[in-house]
Structure formats: structure tokens, C-alpha cells
Amino acid sequence: MTESDSSRRSLVGTITDRWCAFWFTPEPAYTLGLVRMMFGVVVVAWTLALLPDFSRVFGEQGVAPAYPRLAYQWSVFDVWPGDPALWIGWVLLLLSAVAMTVGWHSRFAAIVVFVLFYSFDRSGGFVFNAGDQLLTVVALILALSCCGAALSLDQRRRTGSFRSAQTMAPWPIRLMQVQLSLVYLVSVQAKLSGKFWADGAAASYTWRTDGRWALLSAPEWLSGNAILVNVATWGTLLIELAIAVLVWNRRWRFWVLAAGVVMHLTMMITMNVAFFSVAMFVLYLAFIPWETVQSLPGKLKRRRASASPPEQQPIDQAAS
User: Fold this and answer.
1) What confidence tens digit (pLDDT) does each residue in 250-286 have?
2) C-alpha count within 13 angstroms, C-beta hemisphere, residue 252
3) Per-residue confidence (pLDDT) for residue 128, from 0 to 100
4) pLDDT on residue 62
5) How far apart are CA 191 and CA 197, in angstroms?
6) Cβ neighbours of residue 95 under 8 Å, at least 6 residues apart?
7) How far apart are CA 179 and CA 175, in angstroms?
8) Residue 137 burial by CB count (10 A; 0-12/13-18/19+): exposed, middle or buried?
9) pLDDT, tens only, 33-47
10) Is the pTM of the predicted complex or chain greater than 0.85?
């Protein structure tokens, strides 16, 4: 065997070892438990948000009672159509989302959430956006994982402690982390392939909305200023690209995610993005180290104790 062959095999072995370590080195599942809890809260809010226009969107007398059939797409409401099935599905989705939040029969609840969430997303495709599809992807990952392995009633039933965690391979969290980078990379590529982002004018169009499409419209001096519009447009692209790449660097992770939080909060205020930004925040949680999640309750308890005034001693004891 030549020296070059030996070095090549050594390099392949090193890459293989790092690949396996990245996906399968066991660690406490605290981060997965945190993501499951927050995802459950988001699905509860998403389900309740359907209620005001539920019949007009999904019902037999709705705006589009029959949806186009596409290859490889399905819905439980294709098997059991009708308004009663829709309402039963809505109730089951809400109860399953609550069960996921507290971690009660988490795996089964996650499967139910995925099936019903995808079915509603498939049936109401005309009113949903990429954020709803992203939540469907997260639901599938949680349904395939042991999402009740930490911070759950399931774990309390197994070990007697809600805040305990099992040690397991972190591949579900890794899938969400990779998903975050892919979302931003594809977003940057798609935006640069269009006209308005490439010429720096995209932010102006998003800011020129009225109260029906945004919580707060941008003032004219902002949306009409060419310099500020270009800074905002290209700044958005740079932030998305930075998150996609630098989020894997421990030194830069906090700063790029903080910039992403500011960017998405601005989008939520000035644009009608529905649950897209919230879905991205769920993926942000996948980058919180499990050590931080484990120690957070203790830190909050100590901070609350230090902030509270010291207890006063009884008068007679102080006098003595």
C-alpha cells in the first residue's frame, strides 16, 4: 500500500468518524424536549388561529371545497370528508398539541399532530405559506423521534422527575439545525434570482403595506429613501446568509441568531408573514446547547431568590 493510499484511507476514516459523531454521539435530550414544548405551544396557537374562518376555508361551503389532487399528497379528509370530520380533526389537533406541550404520550401525540397538521395544510393550501410547511417538517421530525425523552410527563412517569432527560443520539436536533441552514440558503438563492432583491428595492415593496397586511406600516421617509431601502434589502440577504453559514461556529452563533431574531420580529411587524417567523424561532431553539437547557431552571430560581428582598427576622429575635 502506498503512502498516498494510506493517507486517503485515513482521511475517509476521519470524515466518517466525524459524520457519525455529529449525528449519533449520545447526549441528554434536553434540547429536544425544549423544542417539543415550544412546538406544541405554536401548534396550539396555530390551531386556535384557524377557528375564526374555519368553515369558510375548510368547510363544504367554503371558498374552495374541492382541492386539486397532486402526486404524493394526501389528507385524512380525503378519506373522511365533510364538516363533522373537519371539526373532529380540529379538536384532536388541539388536544394532541397540548399533549405534546406537556409531554404526555409524546410520540403518539406527535404522530397525530403531524397527520392532522399536514391534512389541514393540504386542504387549505391557498391560505397557508412556507411557515406552515416548515412546521409540518418539524412535526414529522418530532413524530419520528423520541420527543418525550426530556422535560415531559412521560419522563416523570419513567423517572419521577419532569426535568430529567434520557441520553440518546441527537439526530432529530441535527435535522432541524440542517433544516435551518437550508431554509436560509435557498431563500438567499431564490431572492437573488429575482429582480427586486437584486436591484435593492425589495424592502420598499414590503414596507408599502397598509394596516390590512401589517401590524405597523413603515413611514414614508423610510420606505421612500433609496439608501435605507438598499441597506435593508441587502442587509436581509447578508443576515440570512450569515445565519446559514456562521450558525455552525460557536463564537458567532449567538450574534447571528440574535440578528435573525431582530430581522424576523421586524418582518412580523411590517409584513403579514403569519407563522413563518415563529416556525423559524422553533428551529433556532435547536441550537441551544443541552447544558444550557438543563441549567436554566436553576439559574432562574437563583436569580429570583437573589432579586427578592431578604426575609425580616422576628422583632424579639432581632432584639436579642
Assistant:
1) 999 999 999 999 999 988 888 778 899 999 999 999 9
2) 12
3) 84
4) 64
5) 6
6) none
7) 6
8) middle
9) 999 999 999 999 999
10) yes
Q: Which of 91, 119, 117, 96 lies closest to 107 in space, CA to CA?
A: 96
Q: Write a three-state SS string for the chain.
A: CCHHHHHHHHHHHHHHHHHHHHHHCCEECHHHHHHHHHHHHHHHHHHHHHHHHHHHHHCCCCCCCCCCCCCCCCCHHHHCCCHHHHHHHHHHHHHHHHHHHHCCCHHHHHHHHHHHHHHHHHHCCCCCCHHHHHHHHHHHHHHHCCCCCECCHHHHHHHCCCCCECEECCHHHHHHHHHHHHHHHHHHHHHHCCHHHHCCCHHHHHHCCCCCCCCCCCCHHHHCCHHHHHHHHHHHHHHHHHHHHHCCCHHHHHHHHHHHHHHHHHHHHHCCCCCHHHHHHHHHHHHCCHHHHHHHHHHHHHHHHHHCCCCCCCHHHHHC
Lowest mean pLDDT among 241-255, 277-291, 303-317: 303-317
The identity of residue 26, as a single letter, is P
Please choose, from the candidates 175, 226, 234, 189, the residue with its C-alpha nearest in 3D space to the C-alpha of residue 204: 226
Q: Which residues fall within 8 angstroms of residue 130, CB to CB, at 6 or more apart?
A: 276
Of the listed ranges 154-158, 193-197, 216-220, the least confidently predicted one is 216-220
**Cell for 256?**
447571528
What are the C-alpha distances in Å from 75 to residues 4, 114, 135, 209? 55, 11, 16, 35
The CB-based long-range contact list for 244-249 (8 Å cut-off, 24+ gap) reads 244/180, 244/181, 244/182, 244/184, 244/185, 244/188, 245/181, 247/177, 247/180, 247/181, 247/287, 248/181
